[in-house]
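Ticket #4471: structure export looks truncated?
Reporter: QA, pipeline team
Priority: medium

Steps to reproduce: submit the single chain below to the structure queue and open the exported record.
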Amino acid sequence: MISKLLIANRGEIAVRIIRTCKEMGIETVAVYSTADKDSLHVQLASESVCIGGPKPLDSYLNMHAIIQAACLTGCDAIHPGFGFLSENSEFARLVQECGLIFIGPSPEIIEKMGNKTEARKSMMHAGVPIVKGCNEPVKEVEEGLKIARDISYPVIVKACNGGGGRGMRIVYDESDFAHLFLEAKNESKVCFGSEDIFIEKYIECPKHIEVQVAGDNFGNVIHLFERDCSFQIRNQKMIEEAPCFVLSEELRENMCNDAIKACKEVGYNSVGTIEFLLDKHGDYYFMEMNTRIQVEHPITEMITGIDLVKLQIRIANNLQLGYKQEDIKRQGYALECRINAEDPKRNFAPSAGKIEFLNLPGGRGVRIESAVYNGCFIPPYYDSMIAKIITFAPSRLECIKKMRVALEEFILDGIETNEEFHYLVLHNKQFIEGKYDTAFASGLIEELIANEYI
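Actual output as written to the record:
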């Protein structure tokens, strides 16, 4: 059984994991870069180890430094959190080869589901609906042009091993195909170390719905319902809610059942997420699988009452899930706003610096996930998210109203944040009605700029 665990991450997710480990009686080791020496996760962990300089490649992406820190401190396991090395099959394999437990699925599953073309083949075999596209990597522009013509425009060009909106380009016209294909290919190489690209039909203005799943090493698989992650800026999620307000019960059941089929097809053995695109006709398609804990996992925890990090660790300990599908009950609504250190008035440019004053909201049904505190410094080297505000209420409208109050109480001086932008979104009629899609945020931003709200 795991008695000591290293967290190969930083910020709020590292703090989140440390808290659950404390509840489970597991000692924790924090790793940190020189830029993070005063970070909250370093102060909360049982031990801490500096693993390199401020740049991610020198620290949080330095596999050997992380594993060496785990071995030197006597850890049994490594939790990768999200981002960084969380979906890196090479890292997961290296962890296991060093006699440590990787808190996540097997390297083989990460490899298969992290490769978009391999994942598509698995979903086809499982009978899960997929978007029309190619099932092998596309190497050259001419080959891609032929596939795009067969599919018909618009198409989306994606990195086979990508995620988080990187290595992705939407092509509306053949005249733009060549340069956008090469852009995606180059970005894929820089971000993921691979030039492999695939092409599929672009579903315009869909809902982005993801189903939370969990499977163990004994063939048990459950879903924990869905989240609506359609509010996105530059393919980056900004506001998430659970459950999806506009799904019928029949559609919800079908989607969740397909998510379970997907997991069983690949023998999934951890906590993960099956992501779907829902078009305007009510048809949905498999998009990808995230083989890790998600940023937005707290809203699922709020509506189900289940600690997903604890469940991850339990599965990694080779224990059964401890839940059957009929045990998973959905109650109320939860909403999450990602507070980023960025300036909406400067096209959401990152804002680094010292936090001079901070007041975090509280009260019934309000949850904060963060690693910031008064006087801490926000470095410029990492993702700009500095906090997540989560609200929970019996109805969606009550949940939105509670979030408005929480945002009013959130006060931060010293750097710019997107808190006021969230507040404006939560007063928008279309958002309140739940009738928004992945194109909604960009249109709203244009409207707010035109009216000089941002």
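Status: closed, not a bug. The export was complete when the record was re-opened. Leaving a note from the reviewer for reference: The CA atoms of residues 300 and 306 lie 8 Å apart.
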